[in-house]
Amino acid sequence: ACANILLAAGIADVTVLDSKGIVSADRKDLNEVKVDLAARTNPAGRRGGTAEALDGADVFLGVSAGTVPEELIATMAQDSIVFALSNPDPEIHPDIARKHAAIVATGRSDFPNQINNV
């Protein structure tokens, strides 16, 4: 749903990950919904996992309850944006993400940068 909203808003370069890595047209394990999503996203043809998806990325939008190590956030573009929205534990703590990203927000209502349910 988030990818569809971004695409509808005109964001052309969206890379989606699932539990097995980047959703790409060459993957043989995708269901019908993900096949459709793969056809509309990942224009750079990235393959791999979180490391490959975040390398040089402008924005990370996390809604997975997974974790993202600081060293991967550090590989993102300068002045990047990190929205780690999982509850109760964001994918990366905002204090750590803030070391590398210009804008950081979470989905936790007890953090001052909560944007969930906007």
Task: Describe the overall structure.
The chain has helices at residues 2-8, 32-40, 50-54, 70-73, 94-97; strands at 17-18, 21-22, 59-62, 80-84, 101-106. By secondary structure, the protein is α/β, with parallel strands linked by helices. It has two domains: 1-48, no CATH class; 54-118, no CATH class. Strands 3-4-5 form a three-stranded parallel beta sheet, with no helix packed on it. It has a two-stranded antiparallel ribbon with strand order 1-2. Helix 5 links the parallel strand 4 (80-84) and strand 5 (101-106). The chain is globular. 25% of the residues are buried.
Helix-strand category: alpha/beta
Biggest sheet details: 3 strands, parallel
Number of helices: 5
SS elements, strand count: 5
For the termini, the CA-CA separation is 15 Å
Gyration radius, in Å: 14 Å
Overall geometry comes to globular
- Determine the strand fraction and express it as a percent band: 15-25%
Pick out the low-confidence regions.
Answer: none
Side-by-side strand order of the widest sheet: 3-4-5
Number of domains: 2
Helix content: 10-25%
Secondary-structure element order, N to C = HEEHHEHEHE
Q: How confident is the prediction overall: mean pLDDT?
A: 95
Topology of this structure?
Blueprint: H1 2-8, E1 17-18, E2 21-22, H2 32-40, H3 50-54, E3 59-62, H4 70-73, E4 80-84, H5 94-97, E5 101-106
Parallel strand pairs: 3-4, 4-5
Antiparallel strand pairs: 1-2
